[in-house]
Amino acid sequence: MALSGPSVLPADGQAVQQAVIFLHGYGADGNDLIDLAPMLADALPGTAFYSPNAPQPCEMGPFGRQWFSLSQYDPEMLRRNPATLAPAYAQMQDGTRAAAPDLSAYIDSVAASHGIGRDRVALVGFSQGTMMALHVGLRTQPPVAAVVGFSGALIGAETLEAELVDEPPPVLLIHGDADQIVPIAAMGMASRALEDAGVDVNTMTCAGLEHGIDRDGLELTAGFLAHVFGL
For position 144, which CATH number holds? Predict the structure, then answer.
């Protein structure tokens, strides 16, 4: 299906030079992250921001969307026993694979609408959106400019090296050390797997932050993307 959702174009009619696509978490929709656009816009002049709705209605309620099912996800178990993290995330790979073509097509449509390449498009995900950003951003051609992941996890680590794009984009992972939904250990696992696959990855731990996005993380994201885009 064709994805759609809210967007914010550059102020004062500036020409679009690059785009940032926000990927929301489980049970939210595109409106959840589009409000981040003004917080990044000053550091990223000439940037169009997009925040598509995930393709599926959320299975847990009448509102919101999901990229794939999390019906078997048990954050309490993951907190009690970190050894269950890897098997739990391995089980989600079918979900990321199924949602990937729609997201990849959306990236292409955003790039085409502004006459730019995918190398001028960055993905910024939160939670389940981070899972999708890492999957699609590292596995689909041509490569995107960068991937930023808040409070998420790497799905399919065991197949990443074999499926990784040539010249993979740099990755920034940001996670709160008080996250009760996706344990902070998930960031360490992702970082190690990315490094082992040859991906340029940086991480930031946000002290006291639960499952969310804070100003420090956004400031780092703004600087990271400005550097990637050469601004």
Answer: 3.40.50.1820
